[in-house]
Design a protein that fits this description.
The protein has eleven helices and eight strands. By secondary structure, it is α/β, with parallel strands linked by helices. It is globular.
C-alpha cells in the first residue's frame, strides 16, 4: 500500500530541454539554444557533486544554476545582460502532456510531492507555472543535500511521518530509483525517451526491478488503482 508518491521533477515531470532552450533563444538569439541548454544542464551534476562529497556546504540549486550559467556563457563567448532573468528559465518548464491530469488522479488517493534537487523556492514557482498540484514541497533543501544521497529520500519520508516502504519514488532515471530502492522506498519508472532529445540512449527503458513500470502518469494511476 502506497500512502505517498514523491517525484523527480526535471525530466520526469517537465521538459527542461525544450523549455530552457526557448528562454535561451529569446535572450541569446546568436547562440544555438538547444546546445546552450544542454551545456547548462551538463554543469548540473558536477556542481552538486562537490556538495555531495563534502567539498562545499549546501547551496540551493537556483544559485548553482546561476553560477553554471556564467560558466556556460563564457564557454559560448556571450554576455548575458540579465543573468537572473535567464536563470528563471528553470522556473518556466512545460510539463509533459500526461503529467498534470495524472497527478490529479494520483492525488485523489495519496499524498504527492516533489523529491527534487530543486529548492523549495524553485519548485514552488515551477509548480505555479506548470500547474503541478503538489500537497507540499520535499527534496534536497529539507535534507540539506542532493540526490542520489540516501538521506534526501529518507528526509522526505520523515517529513511525511511515513516509513519508507509506504512511499513510492517516481522517476524517469534508473539511478534515482536505485538509490530510493536502496533506502527502502517503493519505486516507479516512467520513461521519458526524449528528455535529452531524439538521440537519447540512457534511461529509455528500466534497468532495475522496480515496483511499477508505466508509460506515463495515467498508466501509473491505473496500476495503483487510482
Amino acid at each position: 500500500m502506497v500512502e505517498a508518491l514523491i517525484f523527480d521533477v526535471f525530466g520526469t515531470c517537465v521538459d527542461w530541454r525544450s523549455s530552457v532552450a526557448r528562454e535561451v533563444a529569446r535572450t541569446l538569439p546568436e547562440v544555438d539554444a538547444i546546445a546552450f541548454a544542454e551545456a547548462w544542464r551538463a554543469e548540473y551534476d558536477p556542481a552538486m557533486a562537490r556538495i555531495r562529497e563534502g567539498a562545499r556546504g549546501y547551496v540551493p540549486l537556483g544559485d548553482l544554476h546561476l553560477e553554471n550559467l556564467h560558466r556556460v556563457a563564457d564557454d559560448f563567448g556571450v554576455t548575458v545582460s540579465d543573468p537572473v532573468g535567464l536563470n528563471a528559465a528553470w522556473e518556466k518548464l512545460d510539463p509533459w502532456p500526461d503529467v498534470v491530469g495524472g497527478l490529479e488522479r494520483l492525488r485523489a488517493h495519496a499524498i504527492i510531492a516533489p523529491c527534487s534537487n530543486g529548492s523549495i523556492a524553485l519548485m514552488t514557482r515551477l509548480a505555479r507555472y506548470a500547474g503541478l498540484p503538489w500537497d507540499c514541497i520535499l527534496g534536497a533543501e529539507i535534507a540539506g543535500d542532493y540526490k542520489p544521497k540516501r538521506g534526501v529520500y529518507l528526509a522526505s519520508c520523515h517529513a511525511l511521518r511515513l516509513e519508507p516502504d509506504k512511499v513510492m519514488m517516481v522517476a524517469a532515471h534508473n539511478d534515482d530509483l536505485r538509490a530510493a530502492q536502496d533506502a527502502g522506498l517503493q519505486t516507479a519508472f516512467i520513461p521519458r525517451p526524449t528528455e535529452y532529445g531524439p538521440a537519447q540512449r540512457k534511461d529509455v527503458e528500466p534497468t532495475g526491478d522496480w515496483t511499477v513500470v508505466a508509460q506515463g502518469f495515467d498508466m501509473l494511476a491505473e496500476r495503483l488503482g487510482c
